[in-house]
């Protein structure tokens, strides 16, 4: 099991860099701290989102699911497209609003190496969650329909 964890941590970093490159995202606002966002916007984020990427540490294509749960719970699940390996990482999330009138999604957990945390601008268009890094790189996540 420890081998899976070691591979997963390397895979996390590789996928994060390859898929979006979210280093120091959302930072740079000096002086004032972001404030919590109203409940309606937070509720819109709750659910499961997925994207695809290439992770050499897991042997190629992976499906990544971001489970944003009520009360700030987070689970990231990375699954090989052509294999049996699936890795799960717990964490937390929160939605803040910065002084430039932007929604900032804060994601915390082991999957977000090397620092264990990322902050990205976020926007929902229909059933697509668009995450934007401070450098302008974007990543689209599709909403997954409820199983219930």
Write the layout of secondary structure elements.
Elements: H1 2-19, E1 35-36, H2 39-45, E2 47-55, E3 60-68, E4 73-80, E5 86-97, E6 103-109, E7 117-125, E8 128-132, E9 138-144
Structure, explained:
There is one protein chain. The protein is α+β, with helices and mostly antiparallel strands. It has one domain: Lipocalin, CATH 2.40.128.280. 17% of the residues lie in helices and 46% in strands. The protein has 2 helices and 9 strands; from the N terminus they run αβαββββββββ. The protein has helices at residues 2-19, 39-45; strands at 35-36, 47-55, 60-68, 73-80, 86-97, 103-109, 117-125, 128-132, 138-144. It has an 8-stranded antiparallel barrel with strand order 2-3-4-5-6-7-8-9. Residues 1-31 have low confidence and may be disordered.
Q: What is the name of the CATH class? A: Mainly Beta
What's the main sheet like?
8 strands, antiparallel, barrel
Strand order of the largest sheet: 2-3-4-5-6-7-8-9
Q: Give me the secondary-structure category.
A: alpha+beta
- What ranges have pLDDT less than 50 throughout 5 or more consecutive residues? 1-31
Radius of gyration: 15 Å
Instruction: Estimate the strand proportion.
Output: over 45%
| Oligomerization | single chain
Shape by Cα distribution: globular
What is the CATH-assigned architecture? Beta Barrel
Give the number of domains.
1
> Helix and strand string, N-terminal first?
HEHEEEEEEEE
Give a count of the beta strands, DSSP E runs of length 2 or more: 9
Q: What is the fold named in CATH at topology level?
A: Lipocalin
Mean pLDDT: 77
């Amino acid at each position: 099991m420890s081998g899976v964890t070691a591979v997963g941590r390397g895979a996390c970093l590789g996928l994060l860099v390859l898929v979006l490159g979210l280093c120091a995202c959302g930072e740079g606002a000096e002086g004032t701290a972001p404030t919590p966002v109203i409940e309606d916007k937070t509720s819109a984020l709750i659910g499961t989102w997925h994207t695809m990427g290439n992770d050499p540490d897991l042997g190629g294509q992976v499906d990544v699911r971001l489970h944003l749960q009520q009360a700030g719970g987070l689970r990231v699940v990375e699954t090989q497209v052509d294999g049996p390996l699936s890795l799960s990482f717990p964490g937390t999330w929160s939605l803040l609003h910065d002084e430039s009138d932007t929604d900032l999604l804060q994601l915390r957990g082991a999957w977000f190496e090397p620092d264990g945390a990322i902050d990205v601008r976020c926007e929902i268009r229909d059933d697509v969650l668009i995450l934007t890094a401070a450098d302008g790189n974007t990543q689209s996540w599709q909403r997954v329909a409820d199983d219930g």
